[in-house]
Amino acid sequence: VQRLWARIVARLVGLKVVRTGTPMKHGGALVANHTSWSDIFVLVGAARMNFVSKAEVRGWPVMGWIAAFCDTVFIERRRSAAKDQEAELRARMVRGERLLFFPEGTSTDGRRVLPFRSTLFAALTAPELRDVAWVQPVSVVYKLPPGSTLPKTFFGWWGDMSFGSHVWALLSLNFGGEAEVVFHEPVRVADLPDRKRLAARTWEACERGVVERLR
C-alpha cells in the first residue's frame, strides 16, 4: 500500500523516480541526504523501507500523518528511553526491515550534502546492534527537465520555507522532473571503530553520489 501511494504521489507531481543500484536484501539501516518532504514518497517509491524520525514530527500537520502512514519509528530524545528504542530497532532489523535515517538532521537545497551527525548513529553502534547492523548509504538526486528555467534549488525545502507553497509548486510541476535514488554498497557497522567513522564513511558515499550526478 505504501509503495502504491508513493508512486501515485510521484505521478501527480510529474516526477519520475529512477532507482540505481540495489537495496540490501537483509535488514539494516539506510542513511540518505535530505532535500525535502518529497524524499518520503521518492524513497518509498524506490524500495521497501521504514523511516526513523524524531518524536516531534508525529505532531506536525500533514507531515506527521504521512510519517505515521509510512510506519515511521519515532525516537524520543530522553536517555531513559534509549534501551527500549535500541531493542525495537534491533528487532526490526533482525526481522529484515530496512530503517531509513536522515543523518544531516535537517533538509537542504539539494545541491550538497551536509556532514552527517554522528550522534544519530549511536543506536547502531550500541552493543545490542553493533554485530548485526549494516548501513547502506543512499543518495537522492533531483533533476529538472531539460530546458527548464526554474532555479536549480527548486526541489529543496529548507529553512523557513512555507510547506503549503512548496507543495503547490511541486503539484504545478506537471511537465516533468526526475528523482534518482542511488543505493551504494552497504557498510558493516562492526568493521568500523566508532560512530564518527561510520558517519564519515556513509557521508562520503552519499555526497559523492549527489555531486557527481549534478556536476
Short description:
This protein has helices at 2-12, 39-46, 63-69, 82-94, 127-130, 163-171, 195-214, and strands at 16-20, 28-32, 50-54, 73-75, 98-101, 134-143, 178-183, 187-188. It has 215 residues and is α/β, with parallel strands linked by helices. Helix 1 (2-12) packs across helix 2.
Report on the architecture of this protein:
This protein has 215 residues and is an alpha/beta fold. The protein is 33% helix and 19% strand. It has 7 helices and 8 strands. It has helices at residues 2-12, 39-46, 63-69, 82-94, 127-130, 163-171, 195-214; strands at 16-20, 28-32, 50-54, 73-75, 98-101, 134-143, 178-183, 187-188. Strands 1, 2, 3, 4, 5, 6, 7 and 8 form an 8-stranded mixed β-sheet that branches. α1 (2-12) crosses α2. It is globular, with a radius of gyration of 17 Å. The model has no long low-confidence stretch (mean pLDDT 85).
Annotate the secondary structure layout.
Blueprint: H1 2-12, E1 16-20, E2 28-32, H2 39-46, E3 50-54, H3 63-69, E4 73-75, H4 82-94, E5 98-101, H5 127-130, E6 134-143, H6 163-171, E7 178-183, E8 187-188, H7 195-214
Parallel strand pairs: 1-7, 2-5, 2-6, 3-4, 3-5
Antiparallel strand pairs: 6-7, 6-8
Helix pairs in contact: 1-2
Mean pLDDT score, rounded? 85
What is the count of helical runs? 7
Give a short account of the largest sheet.
Answer: 8 strands, mixed
Rg is: 17 Å
- The share of residues in helices is 25-40%
- Write down how many β-strands occur, each being a DSSP E stretch of 2 or more residues: 8
Reading the helices and strands in chain order gives: HEEHEHEHEHEHEEH
